[in-house]
Amino acid sequence: MKPTGIIDLHCDTLTAIKPCPGDFPDTLNREGSHLALSKIPSHIKWVQTYGIFTPPSITGQAAVDFFNYFTGSFYAQAQRYPDRFAPCRSFGDISAALDQGKVAGVLAVEGGSVLNGKLDLIAQIAQAGVRLFTLVWNNPNELGSGWDTQEGLTPFGKEAIRQLEANRIIVDASHLNDTGFRDLLDTARRPFVASHSNARAVTPHNRNLPDCFIREIVDRKGLIGLNYHMPFLSDRGSENSFEDLLRHTEHFLTLGCEKVLALGSDFDGAQVAPCLDSAEKVLCLYDYFISHGIPENTANDIFFGNAYSFFRENL
Question: Rg (Cα) of the chain, in Å, rounded?
Answer without folding.
Answer: 18
